[in-house]
């Protein structure tokens, strides 16, 4: 069965860096676009970033552009989120989420998320 | 960026009630609209995609409708396990954006 397991969260000081990982099992990882979505405590969902199935194209939310970087290693079935220059408002549970459709003749992700990890909490605080 | 606005922000309903949640986009998004259910401490779950397509395994009491800027999620007969927060999300253009959520509580 499809499983996504995030790791790497924790408490970090403002201005520091953190790298999140998402290990994928149960499906052909290299055929799917992947995303990070976050949720601040008691707040709604915010899409953070997407990466194409082959890592060729990436898009980011304005709130993280220039500070966060999404990447993937298809040989390890793992998605990453490198977070630099962290701020207090980056405090959230970070979920990795799979795009609904595998790549076909149309390579772009559809932007619907059918499987989610359990989330990893990132707390930015001095 | 496309803004998504849900109404109401919360509602109280009884088991067996018909429940309707609306979502409005700040510009036309065709049918690029999904609905998610989230329970406390859990990851969101995809219910509906492409405005009206039921995700595999989701009970048929959930349905979606709409296109353009106005969309609706309907639960035909509310069950105890349906008490949760519901989010709409547009996938028309990045940044993909969510509504603020609608919390469905027990009356």
Question: Tags for this entry?
Answer:
heterodimer, A: 126 residues, mainly beta, 7-stranded mixed β-sheet, 4-stranded antiparallel β-sheet, 52% strand, globular, B: 107 residues, 0% helix
Brief sketch in words of this structure:
The complex is a heterodimer of chains A (126) and B (107). With 126 residues, chain A is mainly beta.
Describe the secondary structure blueprint for this structure.
The complex is a heterodimer of chains A (126) and B (107).
Chain A: E1 3-7, E2 10-12, E3 18-25, E4 32-39, E5 45-51, E6 58-60, E7 68-73, E8 78-83, E9 92-102, E10 113-116, E11 120-124
Parallel strand pairs in A: 2-11
Antiparallel strand pairs in A: 1-3, 3-8, 4-5, 4-9, 5-6, 7-8, 9-10, 9-11
Chain B: E1 4-7, E2 10-13, E3 19-25, E4 33-38, E5 45-49, E6 53-54, E7 62-67, E8 70-75, E9 85-90, E10 97-98, E11 102-106
Parallel strand pairs in B: 2-11
Antiparallel strand pairs in B: 1-3, 3-8, 4-5, 4-9, 5-6, 7-8, 9-10, 9-11
Q: Care to describe what's here?
A:
The complex is a heterodimer of chains A (126) and B (107). Chain A is mainly beta and 126 residues long. Chain A contains no helices and eleven strands. In chain A, strands 2, 4, 5, 6, 9, 10 and 11 form a seven-stranded mixed beta sheet that branches. The termini of chain A are far apart. The mean pLDDT of chain A is 96. With 107 residues, chain B is mainly β. Helix content of chain B is 0%, strand content 50%. Chain B has no helices and eleven strands. In chain B, the strands form two sheets. In chain B, strands 2, 4, 5, 6, 9, 10 and 11 form a seven-stranded mixed beta sheet that branches. A four-stranded antiparallel beta sheet of chain B has the order 1-3-8-7, with no helix packed on it. The interface between A and B is medium-sized, with 21 and 23 residues.
């Amino acid at each position: 069965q499809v499983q996504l397991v995030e790791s790497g969260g924790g408490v970090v000081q403002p201005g520091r860096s953190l790298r999140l990982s998402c290990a994928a099992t149960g499906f052909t990882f290299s055929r799917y676009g992947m995303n990070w979505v976050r949720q601040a405590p008691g707040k709604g969902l915010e899409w953070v970033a997407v990466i194409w199935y082959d890592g060729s194209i990436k898009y980011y939310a304005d709130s993280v552009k220039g500070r966060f970087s999404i990447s993937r290693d298809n040989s390890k079935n793992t998605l990453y989120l490198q977070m630099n220059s962290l701020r207090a408002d980056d405090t959230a549970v970070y979920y990795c989420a799979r795009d609904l459709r595998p790549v076909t003749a149309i390579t772009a992700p559809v932007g619907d998320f059918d499987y989610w990890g359990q989330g990893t909490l990132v707390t930015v605080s001095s | 960026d496309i803004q998504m606005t849900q109404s109401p922000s919360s509602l109280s309903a009884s088991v067996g009630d018909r429940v309707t949640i609306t979502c409005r986009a700040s510009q036309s998004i065709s049918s690029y609209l999904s609905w998610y259910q989230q329970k406390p401490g859990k990851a969101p779950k995809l219910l509906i995609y492409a405005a009206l397509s039921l995700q595999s395994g989701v009970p048929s009491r959930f349905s979606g409708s709409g296109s353009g800027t106005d969309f609706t999620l309907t639960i035909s007969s509310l069950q105890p396990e349906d008490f949760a927060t519901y989010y709409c999300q547009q996938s028309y253009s990045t940044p993909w954006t969510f509504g603020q959520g609608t919390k469905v509580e027990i009356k």
